[in-house]
Every structure is written in structure tokens, then in C-alpha cells.
Amino acid sequence: MSELHIIDHPLITHKLTIMRNKKTGSKDFRELLNEISMLMGYELTRDLPLKDVVIETPLTKMTAKIVSGKKLAIVPILRAGLGMVEGLQSLVPVAKVGHIGLYRDPETHKPVEYYCKLPLDIEERIVILVDPMLATGGSASDALTMLKERGCKHIRFMCLVSSPEGVKKVQEDHPDVDIYTAALDECLNEHAYIVPGLGDAGDRIFGTL
Known about the structure:
Blueprint: E1 4-6, H1 10-20, H2 26-44, E2 50-56, E3 61-67, E4 72-78, H3 85-91, E5 96-97, E6 99-104, E7 111-117, E8 126-130, E9 133-134, H4 138-149, E10 154-162, H5 164-173, E11 178-184, E12 187-188, E13 194-195, H6 201-206
Parallel strand pairs: 1-11, 4-5, 4-6, 4-8, 8-10, 9-10, 10-11
Antiparallel strand pairs: 2-3, 6-7, 12-13
Helix pairs in contact: 1-2, 2-3
């Protein structure tokens, strides 16, 4: 079974509280999402393998360590996932970025695919799939399936706020994919929104309320 990692560092919790506040405008919301994504990225990449290299400091030669192994790819689920890319890229500037387009049908609440563009060597990379909200889990599960159909074997899912229902679905559908979240909220309401949540992340990021 995949592991659920709740990254509740005090700075992340503090920034998330400000994001939840309905009085927080789009500019501050975007900046906070960027900051939280970067902070979460530290934990998500904690186990990246290192290798020894010989370098020369201003004083002497030494053996030091650098990141080795597979390269990274960041794949946001459009459109809200775009708000998490910059924070992760600030940590790993060489990571390639793909895009998956899914929207939630307002009647069925199920995801509908409309776009997928990934790096050509995506199957060789550690993929970080990002979306601020893990609500029903439908979009995340479908996006993970799309990645696997394209050869991805090492995938991690990162979100800001999750629901028990969404976590359950992703873990059942993709037991090999770990979930990283800043908060596990109470439940979904009748409209499949996370409660207490923070509203529609995409609308709050792009000011389309």
C-alpha cells in the first residue's frame, strides 16, 4: 500500500492557514502556494540518491556528494497544478515539465481528459505529479494511469489539501504511488468539494471566481 506523508511543518501549516482564509486574494494565494510547494519539495526529494565526486575548493581537493540517479519531471494537472510548478523548479531547475489536462464534469464529478504533453524520456524519470486539491481522487487516479500507460514507473503525487475519500481512491487504484500532502481535511461535501478546504484552487490562483 502506498504511504500517506502529511508534511505539517509549522511554516507550511501557517502559510496554508492564510491560503484557506477567504479574504486572501489571488496574488497572495499564488505566492503562498509557490512557497509551500518549495517547502514540500524538500521533503519529497529527501531520499534522492547521492554519489561521490572529487572537487577542488579554494583550499584543497575533497570528495563531496551530489545528486545522482534518475532525473526528475514535474507534471501538473491543469490548470490548478500549474501553481505548484515554480516552487519545485526553484529546487530542481533542470527538471523537465509535462502537462496533463483534466477537468471535472460538473454533473458526474468525474474527470475528463483533454490534453497530455510529456517529455520524450518521461519513462526514465522520477515523476512528481502535482495538483493542489485531492478531492474525489478521480483526476489524480486518471492522471496516474495516463503516466503509467506512457511507461512511468517511479511516480510521486503531491497536493496541498486532501480528503480521506481522495486518499482512499488513489491508494486503492495506485498502491505503488506515495501521496504527499500538507493537510488531510475532514470530508467532501455534496458538491465534491473538500471541507473545510480552501475553495476552488484554480479559481483562487487565477482570479476567476
